[in-house]
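> call design_seq(struct)
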């Protein structure tokens, strides 16, 4: 599959061959859904916590006699049945992460890239480099290219000037190729790959 390559000033810079096994698949929503759920579950903090009856601050003394009251038999004011008592089976700190095979995660990334190609939302640029870390210069280039919510993926390392310039631009994210993931690709309207990123992703996903 051929794709046009452009520069940051929107001028043409030739073309590049994209591997059909990575960029030419028929996207499957079920695969993308499973990988995104796996990512979001790993990112969930799981720090929510409630107090059980052993942790609330009331006395442990029996609140009234066992017999003769005509009411239920209670011993502890910390029981879950009482207001401000302990919570029964409430949340405790835990990890929400679950396993997903490495092959399936790679497959999900292939389908995410293919989905962007199929939707016409993939742009390949020659290089993501700037001579100076000037946000104004990059913001103007991004506006001229029509990128509103874009993810730029570079090769093994991101150009420092480009990364610093992009830091203050709303809706523009920059990642090295090793950081490419399904969730970030799908949540942005435009996926921008450098030629180095294409080579790195093809090597990673074959």
């Amino acid at each position: 599959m051929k794709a046009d390559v452009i520069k940051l000033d929107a001028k043409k810079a030739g073309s590049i061959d994209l591997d059909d096994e990575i960029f030419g698949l028929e996207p499957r929503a079920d695969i993308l859904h499973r990988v995104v759920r796996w990512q979001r579950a790993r990112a969930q903090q799981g720090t929510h916590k409630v107090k059980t009856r052993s942790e609330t601050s009331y006395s442990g003394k029996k609140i009234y006699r066992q017999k003769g009251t005509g009411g239920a038999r209670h011993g502890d004011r910390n029981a879950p049945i009482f207001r401000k008592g302990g919570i029964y089976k409430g949340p405790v700190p835990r990890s929400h992460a679950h396993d997903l095979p490495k092959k399936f995660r790679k497959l999900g990334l292939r389908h995410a890239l293919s989905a962007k190609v199929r939707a016409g939302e993939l742009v390949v640029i020659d290089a993501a480099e700037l001579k100076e870390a000037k946000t104004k210069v990059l913001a103007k280039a991004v506006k001229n290219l029509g990128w509103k919510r874009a993810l730029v993926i570079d090769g093994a390392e991101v150009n420092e000037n480009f990364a610093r310039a992009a830091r203050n631009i709303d809706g523009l994210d920059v990642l090295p190729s090793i950081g490419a993931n399904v969730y970030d690709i799908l949540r942005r309207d435009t996926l921008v790959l450098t030629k180095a990123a294409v080579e790195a992703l093809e090597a990673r996903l074959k």
